[in-house]
Write a structure and sequence with these properties.
Shape: globular
Number of strands: 26
CATH topology of the largest domain: Jelly Rolls
Number of domains: 2
CATH architecture of the largest domain: Sandwich
Structural class: mainly beta
Distance between the termini: 62 Å
Largest sheet: 10 strands, mixed
Order of helices and strands: HEEEHHEEEEEEEEEEEEEEEEEEEEEEE
Helix content: under 10%
CATH superfamily of the largest domain: Peptidase G1
Strand content: 35-45%
């Protein structure tokens, strides 16, 4: 098969997996203890053997691909068992929802050092929880980058999954969430949560937020727990939100999370709308964030869980493939305060190399 024909096959599949919009519904299934709604999972199907192409060597890689169709209208394409992001073409990375290679040398080294641990990409299973994130300094601590409109297109950070010190904060309702996100006017985020009331084990989540502050109603979903993504305290987690373009030229959002230690990855996307609202209601390309947070139940903030060593270690943070502390982003510290704004509950340390920093815990709040 000629190279042009091969690329045509890829583009056809990319059109297939990047639909024009979604609206939330759920497949009926028994939820776990954290879920307040039914499980959402993909319906498995297969695609006839197609030829993928390696952009570097132009060699044919015939594969039969598994596709999982989700009730919101998007689809997950599972890579073959022997597939590797390190040797994959850019087209393959996009097809399988893996974050694109960075162009900057140091960022590319971070990309390669994390994705060489990849072992499998798992079709996600997830459910709605009671938690939501909000956009307020009373529940966020971390780093914020600023971009010219439309320029913040990729946020990717690696952090060490914390455990919580028991007995410091109330055992009922205490939470600690670590995530990356693209924001303004809304928020598109992916990361992990520790919820001491339900379990000492962390779990991965994704969420999109938009609400009355933007003149919108019903355009957000609560935290979506990824029930089949495994992680443990002290493991390195890479969380990425990326704005890409599908084969029709339509901007789409892709969420990806990788357990660097186990090699497991999963993705959600690409979305060109959420619940009928265009991605421009959530993302205008002006902000990228690397955050630790105490979550919200209803309108009430939960206590901020104390991480081990009073600190969450971010080993890297890259905006658009450039270290997040680059001066072109006018990087800003986000400090979490109490309700009166007089005392810090959590705050970030100074940046190190590669956008590394620590989020320091001060007290429960």
């Amino acid at each position: 098969m000629k190279r042009m024909a091969i690329m045509g096959a890829i583009i056809g599949i990319l059109s297939f997996i990047f639909p024009q919009g979604v609206s939330i519904s759920a497949a009926a299934e028994t939820p776990d203890a954290d879920c307040t709604g039914a499980m959402v999972h993909g319906e498995e199907s297969t695609v006839p053997t197609i030829n993928l192409v390696d952009d570097t060597t132009a060699r044919n890689l015939p594969r039969t691909l598994r596709i999982y169709k989700y009730p919101e209208g998007w689809q997950f394409v599972q890579p073959p068992d022997d597939w590797s992001p390190i040797t994959a073409s850019d087209s393959e990375l996009q097809l399988f929802g893996i974050p694109e290679r960075s162009k900057e040398t140091d960022a590319l080294e971070v990309w390669e050092s994390t994705w060489r641990h990849f072992t499998k990409s798992t079709p996600p299973t997830y459910c709605t929880t009671q938690y939501t994130a909000t956009q307020s300094s009373q529940n966020w601590a971390g780093k914020l980058d600023h971009c010219a409109a439309g320029y913040c297109t990729k946020v990717s950070g690696v952090f060490k999954q914390p455990s919580l010190v028991s007995g410091t904060c109330p055992n009922t309702g205490t939470t600690h969430s670590t995530w990356t996100g693209l924001s303004n006017p809304g928020l598109l985020q992916i990361g992990t949560i520790l919820d001491i009331a339900h379990s000492t084990s962390p779990y991965a989540f994704w969420e999109y937020i938009n609400g009355p502050h933007n003149g919108q109603s019903g355009a957000s979903v609560p935290v979506q727990k990824l029930t089949n993504f495994s992680l443990l305290p002290s493991q390195s987690i890479q969380a990425t939100v990326q704005r890409a373009v599908n084969s029709s030229g339509t901007p789409v959002i892709i969420f990806n999370i990788l357990n660097v230690d186990s090699g497991q990855s999963t993705m959600m996307g690409g979305f060109s709308s959420f619940n009928g609202f265009p991605i421009s209601d959530y993302w205008n390309g002006t902000q990228a964030e690397y955050i630790d947070e105490r979550l919200t139940v209803g309108s009430a903030l939960t206590p901020y869980g104390q991480p081990n060593s009073n600190n969450v270690t971010w080993t890297s943070a890259y905006t658009n493939g450039v270290a997040a502390n680059n001066s072109t982003f006018s990087p800003e510290d986000m400090k979490m305060t109490n309700t009166s704004g007089t005392t810090y509950i959590g705050y970030p340390s100074a940046y190190g190399s590669g956008g590394s920093f620590g989020n320091v815990w001060a007290y429960c709040g």
